[in-house]
Amino acid sequence: MTAKDKAKAKAERAKGRLKQSTGKATGDRRMEAEGRVEKAKGELHDAVEKARHAVKRKGGH
């Protein structure tokens, strides 16, 4: 995972957390749900890249 990808995933998670907490505080369920989705996307990107890296270290293709 390049530094640019890491930063992008981290920013997406942070943006999602912010939206989620703002939605929760204001009672905006849609914003809260959007925040959860964005946060999950960032976490998924991270997990995929970590798995890809682990496979490369083990000698996979």
Structural summary, described in words:
The chain has 61 residues and is an all-alpha fold. Helices cover 87% and strands 0% of the residues. It contains two helices and no strands. α1 packs antiparallel against α2.
Number of helical elements = 2
Radius of gyration, in Å, reads 15 Å
Query: Runs with pLDDT <50, length 5+?
Result: none
- Percentage of residues in DSSP E strands: under 5%
Helix content: over 70%
Q: Tell me the span between the first and last alpha carbons.
A: 16 Å
Instruction: Write down the overall mean pLDDT.
Output: 90
- SSE order: HH
- Largest sheet data: none
Oligomer: single chain
Structural class: mainly alpha
Shape: elongated
Total beta-strand segments: 0
Quick description:
The chain contains 2 helices and no strands.
Secondary structure elements and their pairing?
Blueprint: H1 3-26, H2 29-57
Helix pairs in contact: 1-2
Which terms summarize this structure?
61 residues; mainly alpha; elongated
